[in-house]
Each structure stands twice: as C-alpha cells, then as structure tokens.
Design a protein that fits this description.
The chain is built from eight helices and 14 strands. A hairpin with a 4-residue loop joins strand 7 and strand 8. The chain starts with a strand and ends with a strand. It is α/β, with parallel strands linked by helices. The protein has one domain: Ribonuclease Z/Hydroxyacylglutathione hydrolase-like (Metallo-beta-lactamase, Chain A, 4-Layer Sandwich), CATH 3.60.15.10.
C-alpha cells in the first residue's frame, strides 16, 4: 500500500498546506479520501494519471473536505475518463452531488459514468485486494465517517474531522498508520467538534497504532508542533509526526 497525504491544512489559509485529502494506492487500485480545496493541484504533483482513479470517498460535506471535487470531476471529463467513477459518502451524498452539478455543470453527470453510493455506519466496501470500512465519527452534528483501508499487507485509518470518539479508537486498534486530525491546541474550545493534542494522546494510547500522522492542523498547531508531537506521544510507543503536504508512506 502506498499512501500520499495530499493536504494537511484547514479552512484557514496556509501557503504550505492545502485542505484535506489522502491518496491510497494498492496495485492498480487508487482511491481518494476527501477532496478539499487544493487537492486537484496536489494530485497533479504526484506521479499518477488522474484517469486511473478508481473511487472517491468523502468523510463529510464540510467545504474543506469536498470543494475540489467539482474541478476534479470536470478534469476527468476533459481527460476522457473511460471508467465508472465510484463515489462514496454519508446520507447527504446524492443530494449534494446532484445540487453542485445542477448549478455548475448540469451536463457532467451524463458525460461521466458515475456510481454514487451511500455509506451507512459500519458499512464495508470490498474491492477485492482492498477493503474499506466506514465508521461514524464525532464531529458536531455532521453525519461523518472515518475510513479504514486494508489490504493483505497493511492497514490505515483516516479520521476526517472528529473529536475523541470511541468508534475511531476501536477501528484504529493496532493499525499501521493512523491519520488523525489535530485542529487546535489544548485549552477552551467547543466540545464534540475537533481534537486537541491531549485528547489525541488518549486516542493514540488506547488504540496503539504504529505511526500517527497529524492532519487538519491549524496555524497555531503548526507553530507549536514540537510540543504538540511531544504531548501526543506521551506514554505510548507510536511514532508521531506532523503531516506535511505530499508526504508519502509505503506500507
């Protein structure tokens, strides 16, 4: 399994970080997990051919996780994409996709073969050598999902946006890589929305992943990254790193 962390930023502008997105490759199979603003540009900086994409999974439909899908969709049409693009997301996905196309590109749905799939909590998608599990996260009032991607050699969990969530801890037990959001520093903040370093330390200590990559990192978190990494890694054996755009991991 080859993983490229495409975007590690938030809705706050950052010259070095675009919004959320992860590319997972296993053999000829290539999937995108989230397509926030800037992800299409980051994809062009990788070695993949966009027409080789197999599927797109959305954790939820906040704009920083889905805003580059329409430009990507149009690009696939311009590149004469010949496959059926499989698109997965929570219950809002049909209405969301129909809405953005009707407003901007009403012809695209007829010009690209698309299979739209609603993911209920705990649904599993079997692509043969690759399997994807969808689990609920704790992110405000959003019907949001975290994804566990496995093949015969490796396991990965990508959380999207979440606060401390028992579902996420359980799905991340002993995985090779946990890509987890860390949106803000410790201190006063809204409960049930995002994760702070001390809260993420609990997740990591309970789940026991081999490696943890922090994403959805805000400018304050980046400025304090040394202390953030130290806090998250306390009393556990995980390798903890702050994610950087276009970092690659071979599993």
């Amino acid at each position: 399994m080859h993983v490229t962390v495409l975007g590690t930023g938030t809705s706050y502008p950052d010259p070095d970080r675009v919004q959320s997105g992860v590319l997972v490759e296993s053999g000829d199979f290539k999937i995108l997990l989230d397509v926030g603003s800037g992800i299409l540009h980051r994809l062009t900086q990788t070695k993949i051919d966009l027409t080789d994409l197999s599927a797109v999974f959305f954790t939820h439909f906040h704009i920083d996780h889905c805003s580059d899908f329409l430009p990507l969709y149009q690009t696939l049409w311009l590149e004469e994409y010949q496959e059926t693009l499989e698109i997965y997301g929570s219950a809002d996905i049909h209405e969301w996709l129909k809405g953005i196309n009707e407003v901007s590109f009403p012809y695209l749905l007829d010009r690209i073969s698309t299979e739209v799939n609603e993911l209920a909590e705990h649904d599993k998608v079997d692509f043969g050598e690759v399997k994807v599990e969808a689990h609920p996260t704790c992110h405000s009032d959003q019907d949001s999902r975290a994804f566990k991607v496995t093949n015969e050699d490796a396991s990965l969990v990508y959380t999207g946006d979440t606060s401390v969530c028992e579902e996420v801890i359980e799905m991340a037990k002993d995985v090779d890589v946990l890509i987890h959001e860390c949106n803000w520093l410790d201190g006063d903040h809204r409960e049930g929305v995002h994760t702070s370093p001390s809260e993420l330390n609990k997740v990591v200590s309970d789940a026991g992943p081999v490696k943890v990559i922090l994403v959805h990192v805000s400018p304050p978190v980046v400025r304090e990254q040394d202390s953030v990494v130290e806090i998250v890694g306390r009393s556990n054996s995980a390798e903890v790193v702050i994610g950087e755009d276009l970092v690659e991991i071979n599993l």
